[in-house]
User: Fold Zinc-binding dehydrogenase from Anoxybacterium hadale.
Amino acid sequence: MKSIYFEKDIPRVLITKFASRYCKPLLYTGLNAVKYNKKLPDPPLPAGNWLRVRNVVSGLCGTDMSFFKATTGTNSAFEPIPASKRTYLGHENVGIVIEVGPAVTKFRLGDRVTIREYMSGCGNKDITPRCKYCEEGNYNLCLNYGAPSPHKLPDVGAGWGDTFIAPEQQLAKLYDELTDEQAVMVEPTCVSIHAVLMARPEPKEKILVMGCGTIGLGIVQVLKILEPSCEVWVMERVKTKQEFAKKLGADYVLAGDPYQAASDATSGSQVFVGMSKNKMFFGGFDRVYDCIGGNWSNTTALRLLHPRGTLVKVGHHMNAITFDESPIWWHEINLIGINAHGMEEWQGRKLYTFDLAQEWIRDGIYKTDGFVTHHFKLDDYKRAMKLALDNPPEVIKIVLDC
Ligand SMILES: [Zn+2]
Ligand SMILES: [Zn+2]
Assistant:
């Protein structure tokens, strides 16, 4: 089995952290904590409800990049949680079932599948009984995140490899009607859908989406599916992404100084300027979806909202940071965190985000055309990663051909 994984090997992790800050070329050498092992033994299925999958394609996303740069802070809530020695990269995958254990009930040989529970979820480690969140389908909130698997797990692999093994609960079936290029967009589409359904807009709200990467662009689209009467603004520096956002339904681009532009957009007050260009105004958006994360983004997003507005935190950097929290109490801001996907309520039905996303793509409600901009061979993952980290304007979604 070939697999790309992050190895929890402290000297390598420290070198990778150092490289990502001070010496980028070092990231692409053999010293990175992310390794490509082409000679792992093919693991046996640890239990009857496991299956083996051959990957076809697999997307590259922020989670993979954070492993490649070893960015999780030693002050982050993640840090104390015991992790397995190896974390396998790649979860936006499209694969074919090539072996099924005797107790598998949901899949057959030849089924096209994708990873639903990545890292989080009792189903991911095959823990039973499942915790109450996993039982209701919200595996993103799993209480057993820090618990070991009941199996003595071999190298299991994931999306960035030729094959991998998984318990059936970890996987979702891909709809036959979707092409591979559409199917590889299902997981990021789920993130955008979950973000909007967790913080649904009211009709005619003025909404700002900060950052137009894959997730932000998806949020623009979902907002217009849910509430076409909303006025959707985007904050994005790259022209091609501004244009794409408009094609997907964004009404306006927030240009120039964000405070002045937000005040103009929402008929707000004058912009007051304090020491060191510290700014504030009164008025602002009803709702901000922050797909950037970090100090600047948190501070700015909170100040661009009107009193009792809603900040939806989508982007994050798995680090304890410092930002100005004063608008949260001053203006009684609602703060909503978003983690991946799980179970949704939609038009009287309860269903996995993975099913809703696939229905919308299949039925042409949600468009994935134009999202995948680059393909690389699995063996060229370092070149793919370099392109992602350099982030030139034309890059949206990079996909590895497995
Ligand atoms: Zn992802
Ligand atoms: Zn759980």
User: Anything to note?
Assistant: Residues 2 and 38 are 4 Å apart (CA to CA). The chain has two domains: 3-185+368-401, 190-337.
